[in-house]
Design goal:
The protein has 163 residues and is of the alpha+beta class. It has helices at residues 4-23, 25-33, 37-46, 50-61, 68-92, 129-155, 157-162, and strands at 94-98, 104-109, 112-114, 119-121, 124-126.
């Protein structure tokens, strides 16, 4: 069981690092499309899901016009970001179960799983010490991804020159 305030603090940190990191996609989009930041912001905000934004960045990175080194860096970074999106999605699209002391005992995903014979929903997972550790690791990894994205952005001749 985890104290509700501890879990909510971690979820808040998770959302904070995620939002800041996702917003860096604006600069990656500007770099790949060779446009000013203002145009990249419009593209970013027009795509209303994280998945759509990451898909766009990956597809642009795969174009022949993208230098090989940029492609490798961007695709590697997007793979890391997608992996961490699972934790973010879990804690942003779940309900919490509480024990008799008011501590969070588990999460239940608000997602349907359907096969030929039935519909199920809500995978339940405990919020224990191992889960808290994974949440903390995810926050640290997203912060590292953000640092790596900033390094790429700063080293990008096009972006640093154009923006």
């Amino acid at each position: 069981m985890a104290a509700m305030s501890d879990v909510l603090l971690l979820v808040g940190r998770l959302n904070y690092v995620w939002t800041n990191t996702e917003s860096l996609l604006i600069y990656i989009i500007a770099h790949l499309l060779r446009v000013e930041k203002e145009a990249a912001v419009i593209v970013f905000l027009t795509l209303n899901t994280t998945r759509a934004r990451i898909d766009l960045v990956e597809r642009l990175a795969k174009l022949r016009s993208t230098p090989t080194a940029d492609r490798k860096t961007i695709l590697g970074t997007m793979a890391r970001l997608k992996k961490q999106s699972r934790m973010r999605n879990k804690y942003n699209h779940c309900i919490y179960a509480f024990d008799e002391n008011g501590d969070i005992s588990s999460t239940q995903l608000m997602r349907l799983v359907e096969d030929d014979k039935r519909v199920r929903y809500g995978k339940v997972e405990p919020v224990d010490a191992a889960e808290i550790s994974m949440l903390e690791q995810s926050i640290a990894e997203i912060a590292d991804i953000s640092k790596d994205m900033w390094t790429f952005i700063k080293e990008s001749k096009y972006v640093s020159g154009a923006l």
